[in-house]
Amino acid sequence: MATGRTHRPASRSRGIPEATVARLPLYLRALTGLSERSVPTVSSEELAAAAGVNSAKLRKDFSYLGSYGTRGVGYDVEYLVYQISRELGLTQDWPVVIVGIGNLGAALANYGGFASRGFRVAALIDADPAMAGKPVAGIPVQHSDELEKIVSDNGVSIGVIATPAGAAQPVCDRLVAAGVTSILNFAPTVLTVPDGVDVRKVDLSIELQILAFHEQRKAGEEAAAAADGAHAAAAHRGDSAEQGPDGDVPAVMPA
Amino acid sequence: MATGRTHRPASRSRGIPEATVARLPLYLRALTGLSERSVPTVSSEELAAAAGVNSAKLRKDFSYLGSYGTRGVGYDVEYLVYQISRELGLTQDWPVVIVGIGNLGAALANYGGFASRGFRVAALIDADPAMAGKPVAGIPVQHSDELEKIVSDNGVSIGVIATPAGAAQPVCDRLVAAGVTSILNFAPTVLTVPDGVDVRKVDLSIELQILAFHEQRKAGEEAAAAADGAHAAAAHRGDSAEQGPDGDVPAVMPA
DNA sequence: ATGTCTTTGTGAACGCGTGCACAAAGATGG
DNA sequence: CCATCTTTGTGCACGCGTTCACAAAGACAT
Asked: N or C: which end of chain B has fewer CB within 10 A?
């Protein structure tokens, strides 16, 4: 319900699928590269390869935006850059605040990808009084007390939370109360926000855990050829024998 | 047939859907919190709320792992923590290397979420000779020349790339050649890897761009609601005044 | 034991995203 | 102007993921 809502139920806004929106930045980056190399036009096949997706998918994605290609030729790079930028809302300047200037917050403040794409770091905010005034990435850190004033004075609608987990929800609440309606959360916590506020989560350890799963599976497949010893964990499972308990064990449970 | 390893059908391993795997870390985190508070059992409804998902989805996810719940009671927290950890492969210790010790790399090295979840930072690697030997998060940075030796000596199978975009692909190639089979990529580039290597991408600016899209859409809806009858004249927002909800585009087509 | 109550586990329906395959559209050359 | 060639745009089918709704399973009280 109110937690981490990422999808749009009443998405009749323009009918652009969420999956497509998530790929638009990918296309935009590839197109920017082509633009810098002064490539005039690009085919769906070439652009798809540069963006790392399927060409049919790319064409379908673009079809949601309109017919911006020329059959037999391809897409005009500059025109497409403009169209996607406009669609993503990057033709305007979005002021963002970063809350929590630890290692990660500092990394974000220094990250060049923001400024170059329509985002402007309006302020850095930290709860530690010792940080106040200290410049990070050329921007002086301000104390949390100023949060509400900063948000409203700068018309900030996008906030980035890079605080420890415990501080995330209170910071989130204050941001929302001050007028922020989109939040990028790096803290390992589930944020609860009112309706109408978008939250996206980036969780470093979750990504690693997903990799570990696949890694384990790969190791298990390899071990399929080799003999495996008995494992210790005594799983007391009620019934059935169908699915093997884990990836490296045959369906038959040795007694 | 045994070597047919194309994309990620993921079906044959155990039939755990990819979407479910991606949520397991979420459940695990919620369960860990309950465990620390000595909560013995939890219902699907409670756990789902803590993890920020639908309870039906959670039950279905768990059903892929087996029948670990007790009807009328719920799930045993400790038991479930163990089962999910084992499923994700977190009962073993995964050595990881972080390549590119800039702001982001340092943040990752300091991130506590790694060590606490079965991951161990085996080494920090950077191409800058001036960084060599300098300790970050208590670990001395080593020079890129040592990459292959570090990976093979430590049996590293998971690598984290936090380099600038230009260096990402070469670093990736070297990691893979040295034996790494899972890569977490923070550089804004599409990595090309051979079959059998998993890549997950975390892209900060893409997340922001997706937020900007929704933010723009929200602003457009508000404007449409305010100026009800007429098709919204996008206020003085700097961009060209044509992003009405209907989706028609200016006829100006640069050739 | 029996009945009631709670909560799981899952069959089934539905919607979304993906990829195929091809017709339409336009460029290009004769 | 016509034929051919290239590339887009999309109808369609399929599979995955989500959600509903409910029967089965067990706890608990009487």
From this structure: N
